[in-house]
Design goal:
Layout lengths: L1 H23 L7 H4 L10 E2 L2 E4 L2 H7 L7 E4 L3 E2 L4 E3 L3 E3 L2 E2 L1 E4 L1 E3 L5 E4 L1 E9 L4 E4 L2 E8 L5 E3 L2 E3 L2 E3 L2 H5 L2 E3 L3 E2 L3 E3 L2
Parallel strand pairs: 1-6, 2-3, 3-8, 4-11, 5-11, 8-12, 11-13, 12-14, 13-15, 13-16, 14-17, 15-18, 16-19
Antiparallel strand pairs: 6-7, 9-10
């Protein structure tokens, strides 16, 4: 039990240190007045830090529009209903969302990987990624920049438009066992 508490503390500290820059940018809404551009851009829904969760309800809240830029789980989670990653969040001055299915040590080495199971996961957040574990189910992408990083999707990845597929990446051992295609 003590080892788990130490790992959790190291993971949380690492996330807080890594996410510290996100809160410094809370006043930057991305408007023309702040960037010097002549055309205004849409402001993000939120600039926020990480959410480390160990239960289904907390995970669903973390991936919601009112959640956090990163939802990190501490164990396998299974859902019988569809999940939706929604909302626009800023991390390091860029739109970003992450589902982290792992824990890590202070040197960012993965110490444990987890499995997230749901019949369907819809991605509506720009630059979202599934990282460091396994998602079991089908993923439906409705936003730019989706990535699978050092993770596996045991299922299919469907894009609602060609433009979303064009910005897709499976990097650093990202793997999809089913099809990866546009499905309108």
């Amino acid at each position: 039990m003590r080892k788990i508490a130490l790992i959790l503390a190291a993971f949380t500290l690492t996330l807080l240190i890594g996410c510290g820059n996100a809160n410094k940018n809370a006043g930057n809404t991305g408007t023309a007045a702040n960037t010097g551009n002549t055309a205004a851009t849409a402001a993000p829904d939120a600039v926020t830090s990480a959410s480390v969760v160990d239960n289904g309800e907390a995970f669903k809240k973390a991936i919601s529009k009112d959640g956090t830029w990163i939802a990190a789980t501490l164990k396998d989670l299974s859902f019988s209903e569809e999940l939706v990653l929604d909302g626009q969040f800023i991390h390091k001055e860029e739109p970003a969302r992450k589902i982290a299915l792992y824990t890590q040590d202070a040197d960012h080495n993965i110490t444990n990987s987890f499995k997230l199971t749901a019949p369907k996961l819809t991605i509506r957040s720009e630059n979202a990624r599934i990282q460091g574990g396994t998602f079991v189910g089908d993923v439906y992408v409705e936003a730019d920049g989706f990535a699978v990083v050092n993770a596996t999707i045991e299922g299919n990845v469907y894009f609602s438009d060609d433009k979303y597929q064009a910005t897709y990446s499976a990097a650093d051992q990202g793997k999809v066992t089913g099809v990866t295609e546009v499905k309108k």
